[in-house]
Amino acid sequence: MSVPIVRTVSELRKVVAGWRWDGAKVGVVPTMGALHRGHLSLVETALARSDRVIVTLFVNPKQFNSAADLAAYPRTENEDAAKLAPTGAHLLYVPDAEEIYPEGFATTVSVAGVSEGLCGAYRPGHFDGVATVVAKLFLQTGADVAFFGEKDFQQLHVVRRMAKDLDIPVEIVGCATVREADGLALSSRNTRLSAAERTIAPRLAAILFDAAGKLSAGGAARQVIEAAKAAIVEAGFHDVEYLELRGNDDLKPLERADKPARLLVAAWLGAVRLIDNVEVVSALPSGHLLPP
Ligand SMILES: Nc1ncnc2c1ncn2[C@@H]1O[C@H](COP(=O)(O)OP(=O)(O)OP(=O)(O)O)[C@@H](O)[C@H]1O
Ligand SMILES: CC(C)(CO)[C@@H](O)C(=O)[O-]
Ligand code: BAL
After folding, report:
1. For 243-265, how does the pLDDT look when each residue is reduced to its tens digit (9 = 90+)?
2. How crowded is residue 255: how many other Cβ atoms within 10 Å of its Cβ?
3. Which positions bind (R)-pantoate (predicted)?
4. What residue ranges of the chain are covered by domains with CATH 3.30.1300.10?
5. 93 with 4: CB under 8 angstroms?
6. Atom 10 (ligand 1): residue with closest C-alpha?
7. Residue 284 counted as an annotated binding residue
């Protein structure tokens, strides 16, 4: 069975009002389309945790800080609808740009703190664009619960902060990163890798997991990270934008994994920017002091 598609807020609200009348818990999975198993895993989790699931598909121009990246972003609505059909998702919301940003639109939602550094430092305006569109999608769908991938870990934090600060009554659920068998995190942008680059790409995850292991064993961030950055360049990536150890719950910089931590990376392979992150489970008791 195909998934019904709506394209306007008024159609969307009518459907959701009917569901609410029946007392349904409504989940939303925001996406930019070009769906892969990562997205489908969010839909599966959403179906398990809500009664009705809306998938949104909108390639949000405001979060692209490069015109070339926006132009190259895959647009595959028919294939996406076909992939969603067997999942049991209840509605696909595909607004056009006018529906989200009508003439005269002048509001930006900007989240300080967690938006700064990491991807925020290299994609100016990106998280303003994400926070603005996600706030709109929450308000348009009126969802009770929303599902985001940990692959975009900083985005997950930005969205959590935004919903809390704006008193939007939506629960934010983070979902584990889905990977290829060789470890590469699934991403729509992987389709832009050449065959040769695709063989190099999984090295990023391998080096990241190796460094996380060393950090969880008590290694100092600076040394472990410098060695891992060199290994990433050695593997064939040409620009490591960041490789940083941050608090898992607050994204604040850490010198050691002496509390729940995340190791996050962004690096370029040819013309493709890949990001990844991994939880660092510390073997150290909190506050444990190691020799420098
Ligand atoms: N490999 C993955 N595992 C789990 N969730 C994912 C994965 N890839 C993307 N997601 C999540 O799917 C949602 C929509 O992401 P998006 O449409 O940007 O896809 P994407 O593959 O991340 O594309 P790109 O990184 O090229 O923009 C986000 O919450 C994102 O974190
Ligand atoms: C959350 C999102 C759909 C907002 O455009 C996008 O940033 C994405 O796909 O991760
Ligand atoms: N997956 C996050 C959306 C973006 O890269 O623009």
Report:
1. 999 999 999 999 988 889 999 99
2. 10
3. 63, 155
4. 188-280
5. no
6. 149
7. no
Q: Which residues contact 219 (CB under 8 A, 6 or more apart)?
A: 256
What is the predicted ipTM? Answer: 0.97
Q: What percent of the chain has pLDDT over 70?
A: 97
Q: Counting ligands in written order, which one lies closest to the CA of residue 189?
A: 1
Distance (Å) from CA 187 to ligand 1 centroid: 6
**What is the fold of 5-175?**
Rossmann fold (3.40.50)
Q: Is the CB of 137 under 6 A from ligand 2?
A: no
Pick from 93, 119, 152 the residue to mutate for probing ligand 1's pocket: most ligand atoms within 8 Å of its CB: 152
- Cβ–ligand 2 contact at 130 (below 6 Å): yes
Taking the C-alpha atoms of residue 243 and residue 205, their distance in angstroms, rounded to an integer, is: 12
Whether residue 1 is annotated as binding a ligand: the answer is no
Q: For the whole prediction, is pTM greater than 0.90?
A: yes
Write out pLDDT tens, residues 105-137: 999 999 999 999 999 999 999 999 999 999 999
**Ligand 3 midpoint to CA 126 (Å):** 8
Active site residue 238: no
Q: What are the start and end residues of each CATH 3.40.50.620 domain in the chain?
A: 5-175
**What residues does 264 pair with on adjacent strands?**
244, 277
